[in-house]
Amino acid sequence: MTGTALRFPAEWESQSAILLAWPHAETDWADRLGEVEESYIALVAAITRYQPALICVADADVEAYARARLASARVDMARVRFLGLDYDDTWLRDSGPVTLEDGGGFRMLDFRFTGWGGKFEAGRDDRLAGRLHELPEFSGNDLQSIDFALEGGAIETDGQGTLLTTWRCLHERHPGLGRGELEERLREWLAQERVLWLDRGYLEGDDTDAHIDTLARFAAADAIVHQACDDPDDAHHAELAAMAAELAALRDRQGRPYRLFPLPWPRPIHDGARRLAASYANFLIVNDAVLMPAYDDPADAEARAVLQRAFPAREIVPVPCRALIWQNGSLHCLTMQLPAGSVAL
């Protein structure tokens, strides 16, 4: 790798838990809190079928309410643990820690979180990883604070030293840095041997500047699942076709083309005049399963079939996410996996 004991595990490797934060009236979910809570209950219920869920709660009232809602939905509460700390919003893929194996232990990387380039207030979210490290569940890990803006949704790893990301996002966050300098930093901090860049691909309504986790995801060291668009009249068609061509040109560590799994395109979903960023690529891998965003769309069934081919040994579990994309994110954006052994439970 890099000559050190550091390693960035792939998401499909064994996990201790999934980290997320409960929505409440002081977050951006306030206007549609009831709908969003239903998606959260379904998400936590799905996670706890396979492993524990660690849920950040802003205060004792939020915890009591969340506990009651989950218990009434018959969620396995033995697999739920609440963590008391405040936050600006609930997109823990981007504000939470990126956890690396470090010899026999773990290192939590605390990158700067700037609210996706200053678009939203993020002061409390930027402190979230450091505050998690103060809790007994995480205190056995090392913490490395890095003064560099990087969101977890912007990076994908195969667990074997290959990182997949988008130039648009990294260049937007760091316009003064060239591709070579960005690669050098990413390889060093994330213990990677190589960085694969996508220059094309976007989703209308996405405010992350083209996070990779809405576009293309590793399913194995030799396989990539990606969002496609089969409607030539859709504004995304040319861009996602160009991204598919970029993916087809990439090579794995053995010099072979990746096995590619194109995901179907859901019908456009709008909030008034605003189109929402619905992507099936924003799935979450947990122990023995893949949680799939479902949008109450005819394409849901086909997306499930594609993911089953990409992950033949895992159960594919649809989770209703139509309410979540009102804030331009889905399952993966809300959650952060914690590698096996990295949390004291």
TrEMBL record:
| One of the record's GO molecular function terms | protein-arginine deiminase activity
* Keywords assigned: Hydrolase
Q: Name one GO biological process term.
A: putrescine biosynthetic process
Q: Which domain of life is it from?
A: Bacteria
Pfam families listed in its UniProt record: PAD_porph (PF04371)
**InterPro entries, A to Z:** Peptidyl-Arg-deiminase_porph
Signal peptide per UniProt: none
Q: What is this protein called?
A: Agmatine deiminase family protein
